[in-house]
Design a protein that fits this description.
SH3 type barrels, alpha+beta, globular, Arc Repressor Mutant, subunit A
Length: 225
């Protein structure tokens, strides 16, 4: 594999493939195209180049997954992105619903030195503003294969661990409903309606109807407090 810096396009592909393979399954061409909002034909050519560079490997009839070098590079990109998000929120006053796009623009230009200076200034945070784990400088990352609020059953008590950060309107809806990392949530009895989950957030017992699509973007763990 070349030691030359990766292009912005290659970095975007590696990050997208890493996210798509989070469940353990390979990433299909169509899923990559959808994630990057490009045509499948464009994906085919790039995947060939990534494979020739040793960054991905083909899984016959299923798609591709990152090789070990590809995973190393993807985690570097993810670290840059999430530290940038954290710095922008904590030090520059960005709101959590608009910081993702700004970090997307900056992650390709920021040097490793700058990122580590930011990390140090933040006392080396472990999670970004949306609750997602930040890979360490050594390339370690907390497991992220979590259940979603849409998977919870009536009567479950859960705590929000993280949320998807790509959609600003989703993030605003979550914030307005108190559905943020660290919030304790009870799934109310007879909660299932047509396309929503009925929940109450600890500290504000008013019931909220969370659309299923939004609930699938909220990651939870059992609340053992």
């Amino acid at each position: 594999m070349s030691a030359r810096p990766l292009s912005r396009s290659v970095e975007d592909y590696l990050k997208a493939i890493y996210a798509l393979c989070d469940t353990g399954d390979p990433a299909s061409t169509s899923a990559i195209a959808e994630a990057l909002d490009i045509q499948p034909a464009s994906v085919t050519g790039m995947i060939k180049r990534l494979a020739e560079s040793g960054l991905v490997e083909h899984v016959p009839y299923k798609g591709v997954r990152l090789t070990e070098p590809g995973t190393v590079e993807a985690l570097k990109i993810l670290r840059r992105h999430r530290i940038l998000e954290t710095y922008l929120c904590e030090r520059l006053g960005y709101s959590w619903d608009d910081v993702h796009d700004e970090a997307e623009r900056l992650e390709h230009a920021a040097s490793d030195k700058l990122i580590e200076q930011m990390a140090g200034a933040l006392d080396f945070p472990s999670h970004d503003p949306h609750g997602a784990p930040i890979p360490t400088r050594a390339g370690d990352i907390e497991p992220t294969n979590l259940a979603t609020l849409a998977d919870a059953r009536a009567g479950d008590r859960v705590m929000i661990r993280a949320v998807r950060d790509e959609d600003s309107s989703d993030l605003r809806s979550m914030a307005e409903g108190g559905l943020v990392p660290g919030a304790q949530v009870v799934v109310n009895e007879d909660s299932r309606g047509d396309g929503f989950v009925n929940v109450s957030v600890t500290g504000d017992e008013a019931a909220r109807q969370v659309p299923d699509e939004l609930a699938r973007h909220i990651y939870v763990v059992p609340d053992e407090s």
